[in-house]
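Q: Convert this sequence to structure tokens.
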Amino acid sequence: MRRIKMFEPQIGSEEINAVVDVLKSRWLAHGPVVEAFEREFAEYIGVRYAAAVSNGTVALVLALKALDVGPGDEVIVPNYTFIATATSVLMVGAKPVLVDVEPDTFNISVEEVQKAITSRTRAVIAVHLFGHPADVKALREICDDRGIHLIEDAAQAHGAEAYGRKVGSWGHVSTFSFYATKNLTTGEGGMVLSDDEQIIRRVKMLRNHGQIAKYVHEMLGGNFRMTSFQAALGRAQLRKLDMLNDVRRRNAALLSSIVREIHGVEPPVEKLWARHVYHLYAAKILLSDRDCVADCMKNAGIEVAVHYPVPINKQPLFVKLGYGSLVLPVSEKLSRVELSLPVHPGLSEEDIARVGNALKECVEKCAQG
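A:
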């Protein structure tokens, strides 16, 4: 029986032809194709300016640098997310302030953000985890009232919407990742977006050795540029993003119809104001041993994953930095019960039914054990 993969990049003739065209052009590094991708992605998100960079982590670091966030500043980040959200703050010399998340969406808690703001707070990073938007409308209002920057980390949410607007259009700055597993991939790669032209101007300088003119360097930067190969792939992917997201949503809806009937398992939620794009289908295994269920699924030929088994405050790096004593119960519980199931666009309805039925069998088996 065919093994069902957790991720499977959707690469077709459009992407292959686009990359071949770049090869034929002989313009392989940063160039007009990258600039076209920046324009098209900014237009898709609904933002005026964009800067393509080498990956999503770099996008976060350069966004913070462009906002002049640094030593002595605090940046509020969710405790339950990929570690780069927090380490990007460390990399600019600022202090990450970890706050708990909502138990249903896995996203940063608006209430906890309000409690965590101090006179040193310079920014809030709102992660749209797994493809479900954070409540950016409420967060933008809070940030505007307090004179704080809102940064959207939309690395997992290409095409998701909050209150009828694309995520990435709510923050003062937003960042995306185009890693190989993402809904839109360029293999590696990232993007910084903003309606503030000066912020994007600074990002473009920082990504290119701080250069303002040929061999004239105004600030300390590095080489964080995107290649023309990546941009060509991204442009082709962007043209089919909405269609691929629709398939993800269809697969997720079908899987949820099965999961709702499994005792002790909760499917992902979708708020009334949100459009989830299911980068990950994050179920909660509440009454069985999650790791037992994961092993059972793998033995059934179905790849699953845990996102994330260790919350940031319990990561060895952050324990060394003094965060280990923080009590953040929601994120710590989620790290024990979350199980990601495959819903990528390469799966058929029969595949999804197989995932759901195997989950039911594995949950029952592990509950007995």
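The longest helix spans residues 349-368.
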